[in-house]
Write a structure and sequence with these properties.
Rossmann fold; alpha/beta; 3-stranded mixed sheet; N-(1-d-carboxylethyl)-l-norvaline Dehydrogenase, domain 2; 15 helices; about 55% helix; single chain; about 290 residues; 6-stranded parallel sheet
Length: about 290
């Protein structure tokens, strides 16, 4: 088994890191909020003072932080991974970043003999807990092959999409589609409620039809129950839509539907719904307030 540094112990990262520990890898962890490291310390796992300290001596470095800004800090900052990692280290970055950010870090890493793979994940907390994530990887194929024991300890499907930035690109497409589905489900849920339809029947029939999807199965019940406990925070989905629109502009491709959907999430975030689940876009569209 390998020595693996793990950077970022939020809701997703903590579960992914624990799965690596359970698989027998020697784990070293870092999180900006040290309190989130305590469950790892309680298991005798080394808690490091910086990303650089965690990366020193590790064969693999995994990271999952909030955005490009956080990624630049933990990867390229003065106490970052790239400056401290030994030549030959493989970095697996599961943050949802822009493809440009992924390519920037990959370029800087390559200059030091470090291999950076953008490796964002598709799935929510349940999938992270159960090692059921789908992992989308961009970057060097030989490094991808070497990283299989680490990636396989966190996900059920691991696919190399292409060169640096390819994983990040497909993740943004995936999240744009998910956000769009969720926004449309919210409109359908409002119509079903206004028409006083039987909610159980609505969920059963829609799930059996052409619109049936994992998004429908998971988000429609939450909307009907007004359960907006976060599986994936609305503010993060808003950020991912913003990143997707920047990508579409870079690729010179129209994105009118994504632009409209992003306006809904942006408005919901500005209405102080950002910490709730992404399906809280329902509340904004329905003109409802979140319950305390």
């Amino acid at each position: 088994m390998s020595t693996v540094a793990f950077i970022g112990l939020g809701a997703m990262g903590s579960r992914m890191a624990m799965n690596l520990h359970a698989a027998g890898h020697k784990l070293r962890v870092y999180n900006r909020d040290r309190a989130k490291s305590q469950p790892f310390a309680d298991k005798g796992i080394e808690v490091c003072a910086s990303p650089a300290a965690a990366a020193k001596g590790a064969q693999f470095v995994c990271s999952i932080v909030s955005d490009d800004i956080a990624t630049r800090e933990v990867m390229l900052g003065s106490s970052g991974v790239v400056g401290a990692a030994a030549a030959g280290t493989i970095v697996l970055d599961s943050s949802t970043n822009t493809p440009a950010m992924a390519r920037e870090v990959a370029f800087a890493a390559r200059a030091k003999g470090v291999f950076y793979l953008d490796a964002p994940v598709s799935g929510s907390l349940v999938q992270a807990q159960g090692k059921e994530l789908v992992i989308l990887v961009g970057g060097d194929k030989a490094s991808f092959d070497k990283a299989q024991p680490v990636l396989g300890a966190m996900g059920r499907m691991v696919r190399r999409i292409g060169d640096s930035g390819a994983g990040a690109t497909l993740k943004l497409i995936n999240n744009m589609l998910t956000a769009t589905l969720t926004a449309v489900i919210a409109e359908g849920a409002q119509a079903a409620e206004a028409a006083n339809l039987d909610r159980d029947a609505v969920m059963e029939v829609l799930n059996e039809g052409a619109a049936g999807s994992r998004a429908l199965k998971t988000k429609l019940p939450k909307m009907f129950k007004r359960d907006f406990s976060a599986q994936f925070q609305l503010e993060l989905m808003d950020k991912d839509l913003r990143y997707f629109l920047a990508l579409a502009q870079e690729l010179d491709r129209p994105a009118p539907i994504a632009s409209l959907v992003r306006s809904q999430y942006q408005a919901a975030r500005r209405a102080q719904l950002g910490k709730l689940d992404s399906c809280a876009v329902f509340l904004h569209a329905a003109g409802e307030k979140a319950k305390p």
